[in-house]
What we know:
There is one protein chain. Among the domains are: about 75-155 and about 310-415; about 475-560, no CATH class. About 35% of the residues lie in helices and about 30% in strands. It contains 14 helices and 21 strands. The chain has helices at about 5-30, 35-45, 55-70, 90-95, 155-160, 180-185, 190-205, 230-245, 245-260, 270-280, 420-445, 460-475, 475-490, 500-515, and strands at about 70-80, 100-105, 110-120, 125-135, 135-140, 145-155, 210-215, 220-225, 290-295, 300-310, 310-320, 325-335, 350-360, 370-380, 385-400, 410-415, 495-500, 525, 530, 540-550, 555-560. The strands form two sheets. The chain has a 16-stranded mixed sheet with strand order 7-8-9-10-11-12-13-14-15-1-2-3-4-5-6-16. Helix 7 (about 190-205) runs antiparallel to helix 8.
Amino acid sequence: MNSKKIVTVILIVLMLLLIAGGAFAYLYIATDTFKTDREMFFKYFSQITAEDGFFEKGIVDFENKKMQTPYKNSGEITINLEDPGELDEKILGKLNELVIRFDGQIDSANQKTEQNIEIDYGNNVILPISYKQDGNKFGLQSDKLSKQYIGIRNEKLKEFATKFGVEDVSEIPDKIELSNVEEKVIFTDEEIEQLKQIYGTVLQQELLEENFTKVKTPQNESYTLELSAEQIKNIIIKMLEATKSNTMIIDKINELILEQDPEIEKIDVAVIDDLIKRINEEDISEMPNLRLTIVQSNKQLKQIIIQLGENQIIIEKSSVQDSITYDINCDIKEESVNSFSLIEEEAEPAMINIYFKLQYTGLETLSNVQEKNQFGFSRSEGEQKVGYDYIINANTQFDESISISSLDKSNTVFLNDYDKEQVTKFLSQVGTKLLEINKNQMTELGLKEYENPILYSNPITMLFIMQIEAMNSINDSSLEDYEKQQFNQTFTTYEGQIVSGSDVNAMIHIIQNSNLVNEERIVKVTLDGNEVTENVDSSKIYKVEAVYDIDGYIAEMRVSI
């Protein structure tokens, strides 16, 4: 199945799952009394989509108001990294001291934003950054760099991409649409009721009494729906069969597809039949049962638990006065660690925990709303463990009187206005200055320029570092070979007997950028024996070959006509 068909399949399944939540609500409404475990499950599960149910309506109202009403915002982000034993203590300490502060003004209705950001490393070392949107114009600025914004207009993006050596711009839009898809693909109340009945009927037929159980404790009462892989398969197929005769839902899915990517294959009966066939052919013999548990207290849904084998998701709601909190915990057993690992030896399956804690205060008045959001990630593999915790405190104050200044030629250098050579030269100068700023700030912190704590502020980087270190402990030569391969393959893609001038110029720009950040491994470009730093004639065809140093790293890309 190609990627576009996969996207189509995903869209179908997601749509059906969303509809299923409403269908459960339909089952509740359609039932007069709730005596059985099955009926009680539907009663409380229906609170998920109820107006005053599990998901707080005030949060939706808050987000909608931010889209319509100007507001001021402020807050800060802090990071805590659990020491995996692989990171220098000095870097770890500076990372855990890092504070990112922000404040500004946002007018979403008029597409205007002004944000001031401070990256505070500690020891009075601060990097200020300003971001601004003015309609279709976007800009970044830092007092450490320049008083001027570096900006781009969201227009003629195909033309702009060619300035960076991109030859195939067919996949690049002339303008990135910032419209809200949800506003364009929406169901009417009548359509929603129709969908509830259609899919509710399927669920009512397939979810039998024996699939439900009840557990009661002094604190609460829970109801569990358990389905085998075969039952899940049958339900999906029957829901797809119901979809085939429902032109309305097919049209809505196709509207969504069109908004995402006009080239994705549209949904029709033939596509659905093909999907049903593939599901029927799928081997599900080792697929675990699905358990869906809802927990109620004082007649209110308080907790949702989803279990699939050893994996589970727990969503819990609590409230104190005018504060609403959601705790979300995901425990996942990673079965295919080696597919993501640089280590070829077999490893024990990793355990992953992802959690979110979302707290809102002030939703009742929607004038001044405080958010305290925490989320974290931890991954344990054998004796190795890395864990991140992020805390985001934010305050939103609605204010109709805010004013956001414009981006124009008096305060902004718009890259769209310059030719390829000018843009390349300018960005090279900016890159050099940024490297200088970073080096000076890291020196003040007692760190090397490549030890910026920001580089270690996400789990992807840390996982990579851990894997490299583990690999290094096993085989130093393997690590060196890997680093060498990673470095060289950046340039070897341009080797060949027949290389266009545009590709040669793109290679030159790549090498220039590489030399800025890899001062210990400078690569030069020569044309017929003479070193070149400017663009070559793009109308000509060239031969390009790599020349390696004594250590096996590329030292020269030799270009000849």
